[in-house]
Amino acid sequence: MRYALSTAALMAALPTLALTPVGAMAQDLAVRPEATAHPNIWPRAASPDAMSDTETEAFVIELMSRMTVEEKVGQTIQADIGSITPADLATYSLGSILAGGSSGPGGNDKAPAQAWVDLAREFRAAAAARPGARIPLIYGIDAVHGHNNVPGATVFPHNIGLGAARDPDLIRRIGEATALEVAVTGADWTFGPTLAVPRDDRWGRSYEGYSEDPEVQRAYAGPMTLGLQGELSADRPLAPGRIAGSAKHFLADGGTFEGEDQGDFRGSEQELIDTHLGGYPAAIDAGVLSVMASFSGWNGVKHTGNHSLLTEVLRGSLGFDGFVVSDWNAHGQLPGCTNDSCALAINAGIDMLMAPDTWKPLYESTLAHVRDGTISKARLDEAVRRILRAKVKAGVFREERPVEGDPAQLASPMHRALAREAVRKSLVLLKNERSVLPIRGGARVLVAGTAADDIGQAAGGWTLAWQGTGNTNADFPQGQSIWAGIEEAVEAAGGSATLSADGAFTEKPDVAIVVFGEMPYAEFQGDVDTLDFLPTEPLETLLRLKAAGVPTVSVFLSGRPMWTNPEINASDAFVAAWLPGTEGGGVADVLIGNAEGQPRNDFHGTLSFSWPKDATGTPLNHGQAGYDPQFAYGYGLTYVRPGEVGALSEDSGVDSSTSSVDHYFVAGRYVAPWGLMLRDAGGQNKPGTVKVAASPRDGVRVRPIDDLAQESGQQFTFTGAGPADAYIEGVPIDLSRQTNGELAISFRYRVEAEPQGDVGLMFGRGRTDVTDLFEAAPLNQWRTMKVRLSCLVGEGVNLTGIDVPFGLSTGSAFTVSVSEIQLAPNNNDTVCPKEAGQ
Questions:
Q1: Cα 599 to the center of its chain, rounded Å
Q2: Chain-centre distance for alpha carbon 275
């Protein structure tokens, strides 16, 4: 596409363009000296000249000359598809929409591909029909390991696995495949590449980083950007099937203190440059069209409001000519700001505010800020100019979309083969005693572990739903589980394979493969206090097999290195498989040999994260003083380079009773330090031990019942003898961060006898009426209730010191059973009690 305005027209228009220096536009911000960057010491980079070529700039300037201030402000606001409809665009001239982690067409995060296409077309048509400049939307999505939002698309290994592959060309090809599949479903823009350099593996987003050492990010940022976008051209937009990228999260999101998500990097400016700048210069040089600012901060100042980083460094030293977008309601975390209003972020250098559910009041307040001069018109124009420039390059002004709606491109044979290659190359062999690997193809193979036939667990977080939870193999019609891949490979070589989740067998196998690891999680939920792998069932299975004389191979699925010394000791071979995605056959390609026992593919991956010697989680990174890991950065055995491991220490170095922030009552046990308390008409608190008999004054009784397993739940019988509470109590915790992530207090429940009066849900020092919800539930049927934390905040609950994360309160007769009480993500299945009662 070429643009109508000539070079001569550009020269004529230039005198009208506001050229006020960006630094002069910003308000005087109270930035701490220790969080103020010095642009002169930063490396140099530059967006390609093709990003802001003469014709593009002329087109943008002419377009802006016809825009109203309302239209300009609209360009700076982005709304989530779960909170905006195409009809809203007739009133609000927004410039962007996104599909957040659990958003989907019609509120269905598992909607089929065609529903995604239809939704994109509806929004584009609505934008084209509005009066005025009629600027197209740019539609963003988190395609962070393939097009992970849409059932039937290719899901590649998460970045932690790709980092182990050490293959920049593989990364470029994955970028190309991801871009094509996103374009097929109607989106224009992905929030990637993720260039975080995780330095504390307790961080719940560690798996989104390629490596703890920025050398890998430096090698991958350019190829991934070029894979997504292709090379920028001065005379045409991105080619069909290519999409805009967004390097994220600027800056040091992987360096927060104690690995706290959205936390604070406490360090020097030189550390920012040497470690966390990582791949950003390469992404900028490759032409990345946008950069996403991090939720996190530097020495107490949030990046979203740090003018010195966003404007003086990013636009200055680093020469970035694209636009900067904030993260999900991150502006609301700035001092003096709320989700509904924040001039500070725009004045600091944010061009587009991601306001998923607060876009409407934010639009109104931003418009008011421009009209009263809090945000200067020059700063607004600069933001809009950068957004429009990127839109031109992304091709959103182009009407033809030749690949959109072509289902054959989703999980095509070529893309599946690429994903399988990525799985093979990402596997890291930590141990291989007695040369148990490769497994002879003609062997009798037992495959154990509940994760073996679970594609969702292998794919991890950011898969269909934000946290990656609630997925079954049926949600991945294009995928193959690890078990299915092993079965296929073994039988093809003349052997036999048996799946037994608990490792039980009748005929002794030649070898057993035990697949286990972390359950899916994403930000918030993924933060942990230690790196201790806590589930005991895998170790018990390994020890039983070892006692039976069966050689064992462990395939460990995780989003970070974890302390697994007992499991490694109980295994003859141990493979770090990370989060491989939907092509489980790639694991079999390396583990299963031919009929003669010769390898079909060797191990390729080496550790891009150091493997810990204990479970404390103390930052352990290549090159730091006192570096002493269990397995060092760069470690990885192969069939041609074997090595002895020997017995490892099984002293974890941590107290097993560490506090749990998000699990309270799980599998029939109260998770330390949480415990059940009962309070009745006598006004006395007492431990909630099982009571099989009660006096007439007892307001509540409790007994164990079966739910998901034997005695995995508890039944509360409120007698109506007077006010009574049954609640979980422990050490106060701060859940304010989890509110921004739209987490919910979740519990399974079964109403045995409907309430005869008001029932309250206790949380912190608050009590929310949930009578209507319990009254509406059918008797004797297990259901799940998820109450959003943000709803509780709206009712006055202070989340900074929660010592009661769950409780039920009533003075009337009521019997209910509960189990699995924990925090859970909002997968479009949460409630606000007030709304439910209206």
A1: 35
A2: 22
Nearest one of 398, 399, 369, 397 to 383, comparing CA atoms: 369
What is the layout of strands, in order, in the sheet containing 511-517?
428-432, 573-578, 552-557, 511-517, 444-448, 496-499
Secondary structure (DSSP) of 687-711 = E----S---TT--EEEEEE-SSSTT
Burial class (CB in 10 A: 0-12, 13-18, 19+), 675: middle
Smallest CA-to-CA distance from 800 within 746, 732, 740 is with 732
The rounded distance, in Å, linking the Cα atoms of 532 and 613 is 11
Closest CA to 310 of 352, 340, 266: 352
Instruction: Centre a 10 Å sphere on the Cβ of residue 76 and count the other Cβ atoms it contains.
Output: 28
Give which of 215, 211, 204, 164 is closest to 575, Cα–Cα.
Answer: 164
CA distance 702 to 814: 12
Residue 327 designated active-site: yes
Q: Which of 57, 142, 208, 327 is catalytic?
A: 327
Burial of 696 (0-12, 13-18, 19+ CB in 10 A): exposed
Per the CB < 8 A criterion, the answer to whether 95 and 75 are in contact is yes
Is 343:28 a contact under the CB 8 Å cutoff?
no
Over residues 566-598, the pLDDT tens digits come to: 999 999 999 999 999 999 999 999 999 999 999
* Pairwise CA distance, residues 838 & 827, whole Å: 22
Asked if residue 786 lies in contact with residue 830, where contact means CB atoms within 8 angstroms, the answer is yes
> What residue type is 350 in one-letter code?
I
CA-based nearest residue to 142, from 109, 118, 94: 109
Residue 505 zone, left/alpha/beta (φ > 0; ψ -120 to 50; rest): beta
pLDDT band per the 50, 70, 90 thresholds, residue 159: very high
Catalytic residue, candidates 523, 589, 662, 698: 523
Name the region of 262 (left: φ>0; alpha: ψ -120 to 50; beta: rest): left
Distance CA 20, CA 268 (A): 31
736-757 pLDDT, tens digit per residue, is 777 766 788 999 999 999 999 9
Return d(Cα 357, Cα 65) in angstroms, integer: 30
Locate all alpha helices (DSSP H) within 375-447, ordered by sequence: 377-394, 413-426
Whole-angstrom Cα distance, residue 669 to residue 649?
A: 29
User: What is the C-alpha to C-alpha distance for residues 821 and 439, in angstroms, rounded to an integer?
Assistant: 42
Highest mean pLDDT among 393-402, 665-674, 707-716: 393-402
Distance, CA of 754 to chain centre = 39
Q: What's the number of CA atoms in the CB half-sphere (13 Å) around residue 786?
A: 14
CA-atom Rg of the chain in angstroms? 28
- The answer to whether 367 touches 359, Cβ cutoff 8 Å, is no
Q: Is 523 a catalytic residue?
A: yes
Single-letter amino acid, residue 93:
S
- What's the distance, Cα to Cα, between the start and end of the chain in Å? 52
- Omega cis (within 30) before 551: no
- Residue in 233, 224, 113 with CA at minimum distance from that of residue 178: 224
Task: Supply 175's token pair.
Answer: 């970028």
